[in-house]
């Protein structure tokens, strides 16, 4: 059984795959407590993989996004294999502190201060920019394909744009779902 906070069909609002239709599986609970966290993830229902796959199969899209809370606390090779057997493309939003199943198709790592990184492969780094003085340059040393800075709850977008113009290795990621009011 795995503890699920919510499961919904929407568009990936953030980062490299922004705009792509996806089923979001939000797992309950997290091993970090970021003061800026925009998600209430603690509550949840225990679900069998059979129930989970049935819910996922109800939607026509190919992409499934594992998120949370911290999905790394709940997933394993078996779940990824089962989603692949349904023909799904498996992406994850993770804080990077957990060792992940290697077969995941896309790893979005959003490293957090004080969270020791244990991920072996990162496709996209996506750092929440909370304000001037935050050390984000060190995250550019992580081996990844893309490096995004994301404003905190769309509140400091101007500041992030100015930072990126001065440090053009970064790209902007907006939480577009918040701008267009979809889940
Ligand atoms: C809610 S977290 C869940 C996955 C995982 N725990 C993590 O932090 O990556 C999903 C994404 O939202 C980002 N996020 C959380 N709170 C945010 C906020 N207030 N503004 C912008 N992004 C935020 C996280 O950094 C992460 O990239
Ligand atoms: N539309 C939409 N895109 C998202 N990308 C990452 C999300 C998350 O909470 O992990 C998220 C979310 O909650 N909604
Ligand atoms: S690691 Fe992710 S889910 Fe956990 S508190 Fe931080 S932003 Fe929220
Ligand atoms: Mg979110």
TrEMBL record:
Pathway: Purine metabolism; 7-cyano-7-deazaguanine biosynthesis. It holds the Pfam family Radical_SAM. S-adenosyl-L-methionine binds at residues 36-38, 69, 110-112. InterPro entries: 7-CO-7-deazaguanine_synth-like (IPR024924), Aldolase_TIM (IPR013785), rSAM (IPR007197), rSAM_sf (IPR058240). Binds 1 S-adenosyl-L-methionine per subunit. Substrate binds at residues 11-13, 26, 67, 183. Residues 17-183 form the Radical SAM core domain. Its cofactor is S-adenosyl-L-methionine; Mg(2+); [4Fe-4S] cluster. It comes from the Bacteria. Keywords: 4Fe-4S, Iron, Iron-sulfur, Lyase, Magnesium, Metal-binding, Queuosine biosynthesis, S-adenosyl-L-methionine. Its EC number is 4.3.99.3. It catalyses: 6-carboxy-5,6,7,8-tetrahydropterin + H(+) = 7-carboxy-7-carbaguanine + NH4(+). Mg(2+) binds at residue 39. Catalyzes the complex heterocyclic radical-mediated conversion of 6-carboxy-5,6,7,8-tetrahydropterin (CPH4) to 7-carboxy-7-deazaguanine (CDG), a step common to the biosynthetic pathways of all 7-deazapurine-containing compounds. Homodimer. Belongs to the radical SAM superfamily. 7-carboxy-7-deazaguanine synthase family. This is 7-carboxy-7-deazaguanine synthase.
